[in-house]
């Protein structure tokens, strides 16, 4: 059986369509926000027609550690070799095909639902889901055996579609902190919820380790918490420093506050504390059991993010303002034009920056109990 594949219009029209889809898909994502803030490292080697292959390895030189040589000492023969490690990331594709009755069919005649337009809107939403889940699962080092996200269950190799096509690596030794100093995610109890105290501990950890996190623009960090953790933060009444009291003080002083206005930079924001911008995202990764790698839906892994926390790559570019983007579209007419299929092909890779010879470069995981409330 022969079939005819068709693209809508000429190549330039398709490119504009793809660019619009990409920019609309990512404009309100945490992924785009991280890109604009400097938390995403974009290796230029991945971009351009001269690059071939689906993986890239680049070097990382760790901190020098030898004791300096003092007066009367001999430098020759006591030199320190560079500690060169590497970071490797992979690209692959996620395809999103949709088949609908075409214009002129009796199915389209029976409804005012414009199948093509609705499909395109849903494809944009799907792309945003994949990107946000990927960046949060990478940052959190979350690799459960199976997980249900936005109504879809992923297991086995299917998980790579929500892990940026790179298997997440567990947080390095000095890059994870849990409420009440719990030894594992499964050890967290209902009293181990998110508050400003544990954020203080994470800020301390970010500064005192051998490789401190590098700050983002404005000498700040960004913290991403789940909606459950946001509720726990607002309701906290037992910590020495409480979010509610800070916001109430702003109201009394006539200053902007996050009790009345929760949006900032197009994202839900719980405010700024200790030069940390606190953002709320529904796709912050779930906890993972250290015993059997099962998902723990009553635990969330918030992430404190600094510069170059994750790497991202695509042969087509794809930064928020790139002219060429990692989404490519194709259309196909089926059954002599009675049905029309569209397929979005997303080629990309996302991976947490964790070189082979060092700690995670730009993230600290804050794991707390975070069950839903009021249900």
Walk me through this protein's architecture.
It is built from 7 helices and 18 strands. Helices cover 23% and strands 28% of the residues. The N terminus is likely disordered. The radius of gyration is 24 Å and the shape is globular. It has one domain. With 375 residues, the protein is an alpha+beta fold. 37% of the residues are buried. It starts with a strand and ends in a 6-residue tail after the last strand. Helix 1 crosses helix 4.
Name a few traits of the molecule:
alpha+beta; 8-stranded mixed β-sheet; 7 helices; 18 strands; globular; disordered N terminus
Topology:
Elements: E1 5-6, H1 11-26, H2 30-37, E2 40-41, E3 55-61, E4 84-90, E5 92-101, H3 106-109, H4 115-140, E6 146-149, E7 152-155, E8 176-178, H5 196-208, E9 221-225, H6 227-235, H7 243-252, E10 263-264, E11 267-273, E12 276-280, E13 286-288, E14 295-305, E15 310-313, E16 327-334, E17 339-352, E18 363-369
Parallel strand pairs: 2-15, 8-18, 9-12
Antiparallel strand pairs: 1-16, 3-4, 5-17, 6-7, 9-14, 10-11, 11-12, 13-14, 14-18, 15-17, 16-17
């Amino acid at each position: 059986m022969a079939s005819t594949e068709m693209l809508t219009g000429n190549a330039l029209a398709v490119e504009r369509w793809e660019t619009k889809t990409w920019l609309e898909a990512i404009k309100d994502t945490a992924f785009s926000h991280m890109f604009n803030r400097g938390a995403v490292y974009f290796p230029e080697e991945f971009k351009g027609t001269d690059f071939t292959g689906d993986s890239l390895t680049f070097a990382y030189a760790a901190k020098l550690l030898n004791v300096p040589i003092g007066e009367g000492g001999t430098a020759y023969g006591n030199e320190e070799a560079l500690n060169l490690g590497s970071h490797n990331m992979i690209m692959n594709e996620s395809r999103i095909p949709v088949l609908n009755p075409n214009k002129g069919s009796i199915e389209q005649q029976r409804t005012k639902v414009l199948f093509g337009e609705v499909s395109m809107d849903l494809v944009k939403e799907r792309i945003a889901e994949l990107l946000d889940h990927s960046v949060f699962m990478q940052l959190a080092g979350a690799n459960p055996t199976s997980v249900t996200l936005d109504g879809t269950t992923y297991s086995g190799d299917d998980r790579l579609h929500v892990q940026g096509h790179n298997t997440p690596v567990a947080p390095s030794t000095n890059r994870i902190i849990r409420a009440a100093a719990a030894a594992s995610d499964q050890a967290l109890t209902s009293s181990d919820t998110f508050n400003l105290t544990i954020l203080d501990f994470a800020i301390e950890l970010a500064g005192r380790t051998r490789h401190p996190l590098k700050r983002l623009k404005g000498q700040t960090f960004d913290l991403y918490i789940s909606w459950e953790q946001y509720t726990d933060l607002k309701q906290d009444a037992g910590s020495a420093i409480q979010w509610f009291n800070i916001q109430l003080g702003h109201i009394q002083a006539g200053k902007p506050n996050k009790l009345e206005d929760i949006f900032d930079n197009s994202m839900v924001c719980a405010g700024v504390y200790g030069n940390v911008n606190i953002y709320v995202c529904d796709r912050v990764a779930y906890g993972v059991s250290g015993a059997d790698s099962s998902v723990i839906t009553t635990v969330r892994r918030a992430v404190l993010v600094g510069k170059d926390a994750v790497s991202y790559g695509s042969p087509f570019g794809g930064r928020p303002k790139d002219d060429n983007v990692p989404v490519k579209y194709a259309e196909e007419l089926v059954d002599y034009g009675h049905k029309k299929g569209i397929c979005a092909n997303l080629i990309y890779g996302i991976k947490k920056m964790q070189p082979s010879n060092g700690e995670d470069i730009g993230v600290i995981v804050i794991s707390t109990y975070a069950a839903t409330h009021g249900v």
